[in-house]
Design a protein that fits this description.
Blueprint: H1 2-41, H2 45-58, H3 63-75, H4 79-91, H5 98-113, H6 117-130, H7 135-147, H8 151-164, H9 169-178, H10 185-194, H11 207-221, H12 224-231, E1 240-244, E2 250-254, H13 256-276, H14 281-284, E3 296-297, E4 303-304, H15 306-316, H16 331-349, E5 352-355, H17 357-367, H18 371-377, E6 381-386, E7 393-400, H19 410-419
Antiparallel strand pairs: 1-2, 3-4, 5-7, 6-7
Length: about 450
Amino acid sequence: MKTAKIPAMITVLLALCAGAAFAQANAALSSCISAGQAAFNKNNIDEAEAQFRRCIAAWPSDANSHISLAGVLMTKGNLTDAKDEFNVGLSLINSASPTAAYCQSRLGDIAIKQGKYDEAETKYILAIAADHYEVNAIIGLGRCRELKKDWKSAAENYRRAYALEPANPVARQGLRRVEPNVMTDEEILAELKLRRALPPDVGALSEEKKALFMEMRQAEEYDAVTYLFKKVRPMRPNYVVEKDTGTINYRLMFTARGFYAYKTYISSDALRFFEKKGMPLKQIVKLRTKNGGLVFDPAAGGRLSSEGMKAYFYAVLGQKIYLLPSEPLSFEDAAIVEEKDRLEGEMKRDRYMEISELEYLWLLRATDCSEEALTDALDMRIREIPVPGTERKSKRYFVDTTGNMKDRGALASHVYRYRSGDTDTSGAGSTGFFGTGGMQKQKLCGKNGSVFSGEL
């Protein structure tokens, strides 16, 4: 009986020894990795790389060592080797684990840095499948969709990441960047009213006001509100408003007055910036954007134009997207500018004047005319011009000033009245139009939108 117990005791002793050896090996591995992490935290990147390579040499099948080394290599910009190490790490772990999600997410980051957007999208999707709360991957997928101009999907991903991590600046900035592209006219109209850029009773969004909204959003994307806080101390309460974002954070936005103040300050800084580059003032005021417009808009008191503001922002970052007076436009942009000049020349020759979209929308209400009646029966002209660098076209509106066209000068008369401050739309009381003798409270068109023929 005693001899039968001896092998069992030996087995127990061997197991204890093996367990002790395993624990000792684990402790050594943990110590090795900790040393690498400590070096990395102290920004000793080369030492961290060397340390993780020592860990891999001693424990080649340890996934954590490979993944840690991959992170160091990414920091050093060695993307090819980092990608290899992440893939080795992935091969050693469960593909549905949070660690696998992290690896796939970082592989997506590498692919984006290499300009391989389809590959990046695939990696981010795999990461999210492994861990639905992998915020970096959700943001990365949003960025891929943004680069493809899939604004709706991009906004959905940024919004999801922002909800998971309200303090994440990348998610917040991504959402602010793409949000204007998915907002409805009603939402934009509501925000403009919140910004006090429109009266509360306005019911329609004009292209002019929509352009203002986009310009405000573009400026805020470049941290314009913080800029104004530094310029105006204390900040005037009528310069900013708060918007509820649905998270614990609120969004500070310009009011119309605040944006005007911002443009005044930023334009002064832009002027000094170009002066420091050695440009004389007579050259600065002639700087152009890629669409042929001026960087400093004389019609706005010499302040930066919308495109000019973008050109200035890029110039501060060291990228030149503005044109000197002597520099030619690209072939595509030159063709657009040529068409724009041709159109303006044609209108000038025919003695047509341009009106703003806001004036055009008021004209619709003041005359009760449909767009078809204005253009066909009354010879108003509406033209579309491509916007350089985008797929959009902008509409431009022109009315006759001679009184020789079908409208007998009535449309121009309406516009002049509007510009003088008379915005009543109850009735025009037109003079000499089609022999009506200026009937009181009679509009140019009847209730059906057609030109008035004597009966309502």
